[in-house]
Design brief:
With 512 residues, this protein is of the alpha/beta class. It is built from 16 helices and 14 strands. It has 2 domains: 230 residues, no CATH class; 254 residues, Carbon-nitrogen hydrolase (Nitrilase/N-carbamoyl-D-aminoacid amidohydrolase). The strands form 3 sheets. A 6-stranded mixed β-sheet has the order 6-5-4-3-2-13, with helices on one face. A 6-stranded mixed β-sheet has the order 7-8-9-10-11-12, with helices on one face.
């Protein structure tokens, strides 16, 4: 009896469609591993399922399966961009959809590349593919999307590990070290669940799981940095000004009054922090107000770090800045890593002309210099970041050699009531863990928080409520291994292992 080729073809199509749907669902489920859900074991289970889904597939089908996984992760994980772009940013809905689709497609290309390359050159299941290729490719491609085309490191696998034993590896190897550990354990889970695997390989997989979880738990107890002097009292002001009302001219005076009243509750704190672009007025327009504020601060023993937009008449440029008001080492820090299509539009001149013609809203902020002086307040050297740039940990390494306290100011009102605000706080926790420093986050409508050197939340304010967060934080000095060497050990290590895998493939005439 011969099989009906049409029936066989239909079955194959159905199987391929099922696999793509499953990969999309697995990618979507990975969002549950990140804040606010915090189900971090899914960050191991989801990659393990993806590895199982592509096992034995031809390279192109594996690539499409990886693309479906990435599409599920980012389509469900960046839904809040609709609020940022259209609801608050007033970008036309058609352009919002185009931009979101383009981002999802670009992000999905990374997981597609991972699966395609793994099955193109190491299709045969074996030790080389499992332990060398898949974790190394995951780390390298995640690192690549963290800086290529301005970078989008959101939803990197390692961020899900901020409350897991694997966070102990972060002070050594940073965010991508946690990613690598999670990817290796995902591989081990596959090995343990395969029925054809030998006992020796099962024991090796089990040993890898115990080593990574146990080693991370032990390393998490180690103090990589040390206290530098007495604790510092801080007050982070959360104005909770609605974004759609903030920049209306009629509300300018009310915003100034609100921050002035909240600051009156913060007097006595050695450092008072206002969020990003706290006042809907250019700093250059209120020099007298800022001067009086500094005088009041001096009278109460308080220095300031205030988020403001500044205009420099000499250069005719606008900056998203953080103004430090202090008698010792004050001045401006300007945001270096800007948000494409949010703070600047990376489009050619003819597109800009068209946008002006169509009355589409757009703005261009100028990026600050890459090497800005370290500012001081409350007797501390401050490592300053504004909003989204705290997602780029390696760009903060230089200042860690001086900084004793980290400060991030942000305006998460752009995110609305979404998961993005919680995930941004999770990113901040990772930066504190990498640096072994306390980090103060001042957000316009939340989540304002003080974070400890192990990534723990010391204190926080509720979202969408105006208030003042008071806390005592300990200045820290010394450098974690990650602060000394950055991403180089992980990236070079992954590249080396991938090189070994290439050599083994050639040597074994097809590889494992």
């Amino acid at each position: 009896m011969s099989l009906d080729p049409r029936g066989s073809s239909a079955a194959q199509r159905w199987q391929a469609q099922w696999r793509l749907a499953a990969a999309f669902a697995v990618g979507a489920s990975l969002n549950l591993a990140f804040a606010p859900f915090g189900l971090w074991p899914i960050a191991i289970l989801a990659p393990a399922l993806l590895i199982a889904l592509i096992r034995g597939l031809p390279p192109r089908r594996a690539g499409w399966t990886g693309a479906a996984f990435g599409a599920g992760l980012f389509a469900c994980g960046t839904y809040w961009l609709y609020t940022c772009l259209h609801v608050i940013g007033l970008v036309p809905i058609w352009l919002t959809v185009v931009l979101q689709a383009a981002l999802v497609a670009l992000m999905a290309a990374y997981s597609a590349a991972l699966c395609y390359l793994a099955n193109r050159y190491w299709l045969k299941v074996g030790a080389t593919r499992a332990w060398l290729v898949l974790p190394a490719l995951w780390v390298l491609l995640e690192w690549l999307r963290g800086w290529a085309l301005s970078g989008f490191p959101w939803l990197s696998l390692g961020y899900a590990m901020t409350d897991s034993p694997l966070k102990g590896w972060v002070p050594l190897f940073g965010i991508y070290g946690a990613t690598w550990a999670a990817a290796v354990i995902a591989v081990a889970a596959n090995v343990l669940l395969m029925s054809t695997v030998t006992v020796a390989r099962r024991l090796a997989a089990l040993a890898a799981v115990v080593l990574l979880f146990g080693g991370g738990a032990l390393l998490g107890r180690h103090e990589w940095t040390r206290a530098a002097g007495a604790s510092v009292s801080i007050a982070a002001v959360q104005g909770a000004v609605p974004q759609d009302q903030k920049w209306l001219t009629k509300n300018h005076d009310e915003a100034i009054q609100r921050y002035s009243q909240l600051t009156a509750e913060a007097w006595g704190a050695q450092l008072i922090v206002w969020p990003e672009a706290a006042l809907p007025i250019l700093a250059s327009e209120i020099p007298d107000y800022l001067r009086r504020l500094q005088e009041l601060g001096r009278a109460h023993g308080s220095d300031f770090a205030i988020g403001l937009v500044n205009y420099e008449a000499a250069t005719k440029k606008y900056y998203n800045g953080l103004l430090v008001l202090s008698d010792s080492g004050g001045g401006w820090y300007y945001k270096r890593h800007l948000v494409p299509f949010g703070e600047y539009f990376p489009v050619p001149g003819f597109v800009r002309s068209w946008m002006r013609l169509m009355s589409l809203p757009y703005a261009d902020i100028t990026a600050g210099g890459k090497r800005q002086p370290t500012l001081s307040a409350a007797g501390q050297k401050l490592g300053l970041t504004i909003c989204y740039e705290d997602a780029f940990g390696s760009q903060q390494l230089r200042v860690l050699r001086e900084a004793t306290l980290l400060v991030n100011v942000t305006n998460n009102a752009w995110f609305g009531d979404s998961t993005a605000t919680h995930q941004h706080l999770q990113i901040a926790r990772m930066r504190a863990l990498e640096a072994g420093r306390y980090l103060v986050v001042a957000a316009n409508d939340g989540i304002t928080a003080a974070i400890g050197p192990h990534g723990e939340i010391v204190a926080r304010l509720p979202q969408f409520q105006k208030g003042v967060l008071r806390a005592d934080v300990q200045p820290m000095t010394g450098l974690t291994p990650y602060a000394r060497f950055g991403n180089y050990p992980v990236v070079l290590g992954a590249a080396l292992l991938l090189g070994i895998a290439v050599w083994r493939r050639r040597r074994c005439d097809g590889g494992k």
